[in-house]
Design brief:
alpha+beta; 6-stranded antiparallel β-sheet
Length: 618
């Protein structure tokens, strides 16, 4: 894991650029490594450099960590997993020893077309001093973050937001609409997480290029995930081939993360995704030492009983990571500081605690199961989409059969009906404000009415009509999953770790699964039907076929009730400089905490989290 930072001056006469400026930016990424290198890029030793690059790492940096090849500079964070394959196609690249050198030579050979050849998890910045052009890229699915901003004088890029905020006062304006959406809805999946109006996250599968000769900024997609937007017809004869291919591609991708390792850390919940990682690692490497980290709480067993079965099955060392509401209060400022956005829920806290523990045990990376639900259809909402799709295609008998088998996923037809009605009301009948008034009236009354007015009148991105399950899965994987991956990456980075996500960085697996018709994704009431079958003989059946899904589980309502007075006191004590929260109204509704109104409990927690986050920037 590394930290990247870069500045490019818009004009030769702009503010003076020095290595000290780059070093100052890197100082805000010191948790990613105290070993720093910086360089000023120029093709003319007598000119004032226009571009400065910097990189930091916990590993001692060699000179070639900032690759300089003829007229090209490259800084890179992550790992490429297809270098040998590309070298077979392009023998001119066989002599490249490092990934940075490989990228520079590939760009020399192919120009921008080289970017589409890069498989794995990564972010990078490349400077072409001959063309006087800078490129900033991140991987196709969002495993690594990269942020950027621009001022009157320059553009800047960073692995995290804080260096940009600290060095450039003009980009510090808060995005009040984003903050309002966070407080009102708290949807970690669909929220764009753009809490600053002038600091942006580079879109996955895209690059930004800036020609400082022509003062021209361009944003382009170098990769788009193709998929089959169709239901298809279920053919039982095709299933074995699908399952075997998925098994092969998943094991091959996971094996890449195990290469040259004698031990690994895995965040183990006891669900199918993390269990697949643990058990497949043991299947591939009988000799490797596996340490499983599981979040445990002080209220109930949560996922512990399921995780115990996997630990025993793979003979892993088991670290049970204690998570309590008091720890949440004690550490929320630290979490929000390193995330650069306010924590959404207590589940994210459990994820953070697991990764912190892995760092304390001396690991440099941890393997996580994010991405499987979005790829293989694991979330409850997907069942509603799938059954609707069956009826829409006039496959009434198949739809009825799936509805009858919903018990296999711990669901019922009534639950699916309620989800459908809720979606219809929210998207088809009621506008956002009316829906919020019906379901979250006390929340609306606890927010500044002027800011709410602005929020509800703001233009929204038009929601494209989606007709198939694969349409929804594609949206989830390419648009929403990066929000979740950012939390994992930043949580790991705060403890000096890389977060490895084999369901989100395996391009061959992803492309194969997304080109399977959706009729195979959910079958006989089982979500993740293909993955469950691919893991037969690897994951114990009692875990492989379990119905319940919890993830990074926490007893959220019990926790929030236990610390409700402390939440209230913190909200009361902290300044709200943008005056977003109407504290008097909020406290007037506080009795709803004891009525187990989960919407209000979560809202009050987000109010506290927001104010804690807001005050980390002062």
């Amino acid at each position: 894991m590394k930290g990247l930072f870069a500045i490019i001056k818009k004009t030769q006469s702009s503010v003076f650029l020095s290595e000290n400026t780059i070093e100052e930016g890197l100082s805000f990424l010191s948790h990613r490594g105290n070993n720093k290198k910086q360089v000023l890029c120029s093709n003319d030793l007598n000119s004032n450099p226009r571009v400065g690059l910097g990189i930091c790492s916990h590993v001692a940096l060699e000179t070639n960590q900032i690759c300089y090849l003829d007229y090209i500079y490259v800084i890179f964070d992550g790992k490429l997993n297809n270098v040998d394959v590309v070298k077979e196609t392009y023998p001119e690249l066989k002599h490249c020893l490092t990934e940075e050198e490989f990228i520079a030579h590939a760009y020399q050979l192919l120009g921008e077309k080289a970017f589409s050849l890069l498989y794995g998890y990564w972010s990078l910045i490349l400077v072409d001093t001959k063309k006087e052009k800078l490129y900033a890229l991140r991987d196709p699915f969002g495993n690594k973050s990269l942020f950027y901003c621009q001022t009157e004088d320059c553009f800047a890029f960073s692995s995290e937001i804080r260096p940009l905020y600290q060095l450039f006062p003009s980009v510090r304006a808060k995005n009040l609409n984003a903050i309002t959406a966070y407080l009102l809805w708290g949807d970690i999946v669909k929220h764009n997480q753009d809490f600053f109006a002038d600091i942006h996250e580079l879109q996955t599968g895209h690059f930004i290029s800036y020609s400082y000769q022509e003062s021209l900024l361009e944003k382009k997609a170098y990769y788009t995930l193709s998929y089959k937007s169709c239901l298809g017809k279920y053919d039982p004869d095709k299933v074995p081939e699908l399952i075997e291919t998925i098994k092969y591609l998943f094991l091959k991708g996971l094996g890449f993360h195990l290469d040259n390792k004698t031990q690994i850390a895995v965040g183990l919940s006891g669900g199918l995704d993390s269990s697949s990682i643990c058990c497949s690692a043991r299947e591939l490497r009988k000799d490797i030492s596996i340490t499983a980290f599981t979040a445990v709480n002080d209220v109930d067993d949560g996922e512990t009983l399921w995780a115990a079965k996997i630990v025993k099955h793979v003979n892993a060392q088991w670290i049970k990571v204690s998570c309590t509401p008091q720890q949440l209060l004690d550490e929320i400022e630290h979490i929000n500081f390193f995330q650069s956005i306010p924590i959404f829920n207590t589940s994210s806290f459990a994820q953070y605690r697991v990764m912190k523990s892995a760092g304390e045990y001396g690991f440099t990376n941890i393997i996580d199961g994010q991405g499987s639900d979005e790829m293989f259809a694991g979330y409850t909402a997907y069942f509603q989409k799938f059954i609707n799709e069956l009826f829409f295609e006039y496959l009434f008998l198949e739809g009825i059969k799936e509805a009858k088998n919903l018990k296999n996923s711990n669901l019922s037809f009534k639950m699916i009906g309620v989800l459908s009605l809720k979606q219809f009301l929210k998207e088809g009948i009621l506008n956002e404000r009316l829906f919020a008034t019906m379901k979250r009236k006390s929340l609306l009354q606890s927010l500044n009415p002027d800011i709410l007015q602005t929020y509800f009148h703001a233009k929204r991105e038009k929601i494209e009509r989606k007709e198939t399950l694969n349409d929804y899965l594609n949206e989830s994987y390419t648009k929403f999953l990066p929000h979740i991956l950012r939390w994992g990456e930043h949580s790991a980075a705060s403890s000096g770790l890389d977060c490895l996500m084999p369901f989100a960085d395996n391009r061959l697996l992803t492309e194969y699964v997304f080109n399977i018709p959706s009729i195979y994704k959910i079958h006989k009431g089982w979500g993740k039907y293909l993955l469950r079958n691919a893991m037969e003989g690897i994951v114990p059946d009692e875990v492989r076929m379990r119905k319940q899904k919890l993830g990074f589980y926490t007893p959220e309502s019990q926790w929030l009730q236990a610390i409700s007075n402390q939440i209230k006191n913190r909200i009361s004590a902290m300044p709200d400089k943008e005056n977003i929260i109407n504290k008097e109204e909020l406290f007037n509704h506080w009795t709803e905490f004891g009525k187990e109104n989960i919407h209000f409990q979560q809202f009050a927690f987000r109010c506290m989290s927001y104010l804690v986050w807001r005050n980390t920037w002062e």
